[in-house]
Amino acid sequence: MSITVMILSGGRSSRFGGVHKPGVRLGEQTVISRILTTVRAALPEAEVWVAGPTDGLTDAEAGSVRSVREVPEFSGPLAGIDAVVRAMGEAETTVILAGDMPLIPAAHLRDLVTASTESGLPAAGSDDRGKLQFLCAAWPTSLLIDRLDDIGETKDRAVRLLFDGLEVTPVDIDPSEVVDFDTREEYERIARRLSEADGAPVGGFAGEDGAAVGSAADTGGGTVDTEGVRSARRPVPAEVMRVRELAGTELAGAELAISEADVAAVLEFASHIKHSDSTVSPVVAAFLAGRLRADYPDTSIAEALARVEEALTRPDGGESPARS
Q: What pLDDT was estimated at residue 278?
């Protein structure tokens, strides 16, 4: 059986301070290197593609995979999936993996492929919130191609569109093993878990040149050197600065100031909602978060965004926090 595995690494990592998440170090390996090692152990016969930068892979690892960029760059994981599918050769099964999910066990990848092959349907496990993990799934390649053709334009569109109206074969897994990370705190939880399992400190960011920035050994076994992170961050996007300047003009003299970090957080939140289970416009979602904070000044931007996301991604029938 022919298998292609794609690792998605094309995001901006905005909520992670602009540090390329797949290139972050966990012990002796980066996140993307850990994922590739797991893929090789689980599916040694698979052809591996990286959708996005190969930063974080060793020269030997980078030479063993093929890579492609979504067009335009930073246009979302669905665009990355589409780019790989259009570039790769024939394969019976395609496995889709997020590039910031370092705890996936080899056995789960094999189970995904087996379940998809036997059912003729996409196969996926559920995360710690009971939601299907769209970016850790196996597909019959022909069905994946058909779904992409049906969707058409993939730029800035949600990966869940691939699954709309389809039956999905569930695959059991420990939800704590299909976790990804978007923030420093989420990364630290993963680092601590690996540290406890390995009995040694694990962690540290890798800068754009691949060098470690602030290892866990230097910062207390799994924590992150925030000074090192700040020094490794990419410049704040010009669009963020323009929005901040406009906001500063419009809100001059207002009690609620909008910081550069707040604007960046709202923009990233809107992008995150776009790729979530919510069908609400990300613009509306960001507006709701801003409205909530305006009504409750003691609520931080982060708390407002989290409350809105919880409401918008709650399964049908759930109680709205606005009514609780």
A: 60
Question: What are the DSSP calls for 21-78, one per residue?
Answer: GGG-EETTEEHHHHHHHHHHHH-TT-EEEEES--TTS-HHHHHTSEEE--SSTTS-HH
314 and 169 part of one domain: no
Q: According to the model, what pLDDT value does residue 120 have?
A: 98
**Distance between CA atoms of residues 271 and 322, nearest Å:** 23
Q: Where are the beta strands (DSSP E) in the chain?
A: 3-8, 25-26, 29-30, 47-51, 66-68, 93-98, 123-126, 132-140, 169-170, 204-206, 212-215
Q: What is the pLDDT of residues 169-216, one digit of tens each?
A: 999 999 989 999 999 999 999 999 888 776 555 555 444 444 443 333
Cα–Cα distance measured from residue 93 to residue 22, given in angstroms and rounded to the nearest whole number:
24
Bridge partners, residue 26, by sequence: 29
Asked whether 162 and 78 are in contact (CB, 8 A), the reply is yes
Last-in-domain residue among 159, 177, 195: 177
Q: Is 197 exposed, middle or buried (0-12, 13-18, 19+ CB in 10 A)?
A: exposed
